Amino acid sequence: MRKRGLGKHPNINIVCFGVVATFKFLKNNRLLADNLLVLKKIKPGMEMRRSRPGHMKMNLNQVRKVKAAKTTLCLCLSVFSTADLIAPQIPVSKLVAVTLPAGVTSAEIQHTLDRLPGSGGEVVLPAGTFEVGQPIVLRRDNQSLRGSGDATVLRLADGANCPVIILGEPINNPQRTVKHLRVSGLFIDGNRHRQQRELWRLEGEGSEVRNNGITAQNVSDSAVEHVTCARCRSGGLVTTLGVKRLTVRNLTAFDNEFDGLACYQTTDSMFTKLYLHDNPGAGISLDLAFNHNVISNAVLTANDLGIFMRASRDNQFHDISIFSSHRYGVFMAQAEKKTARGWQPAPRTECADNSFTNLIASNCGSAAIRVNNTTCTNNVIVRARFDGDTRGELSLAQPDLVTVR
After folding, report:
1. Are both 397 and 273 inside the same structural domain?
2. How far is CA 197 from the centre of its chain?
3. Quick one: which of 139, 10, 144 has its CA closest to 84?
4. Total structural domains within the chain
5. Is the distance from CB of 335 to CB of 311 less than 8 angstroms?
6. What residue numbers bound the domain in which 390 lies?
7. Tag placement on the chain: N or C end, fewer CB within 10 Å?
């Protein structure tokens, strides 16, 4: 195909002029170009902070310049249409961040999340205690909630009887997967002794959602980082109903009614740098199709069980230290169901093909590892250290269920 010189097509010359003029304008007014993307979605005068340092605020003169930029862009795009060419796309700017003042209510936090642009954004909370009277829900793609570490406390109000944070749709069985969510830098106080029940609602939607510190359901490609979940009426952090590719990093969970970290129907996810202690249930509870995940660098201290596992396959555990569990360090089992012949193992709910590397189980109230069912096979332990466990190292339903290397 023969190439044409630019000078021989008048429309192309016009297009080049428009492109050069527009990009020079945008280069000299980068801030204004960014503001074009959010002007209609954020109230004028509201503070906005991007991921890089610094704040954006628009005065009246800047707004006038933004309108001029819009006019220039429209002119350029109309020229592109005349030349039968595709207009270049302005790259989407990084997520807008809205910083709220100390003392706002959970309803105001939710209102701000709901008013973020359709492309997503971040709500930032400063240090302070925020009373939560209703769940804070991240239900749309690309939403983020960020605090200032343990100094930012989300405390469940007396009698609120609800989760503190929900990632995903706040209904019993969400069908839509919500992507690219992030929660970070928060201390969640579930105030469990002043809650009356474990389930959020008594009937209808929400009646199957438990009152955890964070409930993640049908979420993918998301992250929970630098979060503490304490004193929650059910679990600390609970993932369920089709969670995929979730990253949990630097999670502390203690004194929750049941488990520190509980994961159900969760795949291809990573959990690392965990400190889970003094939970009346398990430090980590895994069940209902917890498959193809990695858990690493975890310290589990003084929980009832270190790790409870059922219906879990092909998971990797690296550098797990379990101290002073009231019962077992690791407990593996298969689910059972009631039949005409009594209780029988439920198909495909065994623990199989899991590996533990650099596992420590010390001073547990029963055996370091208990394998409760003969169907739990092909589990491998590499470089383990067991000492001071009341009932020894391995308690197996039959010999050779676990390979120790």
Report:
1. yes
2. 24
3. 10
4. 2
5. yes
6. 172-404
7. N
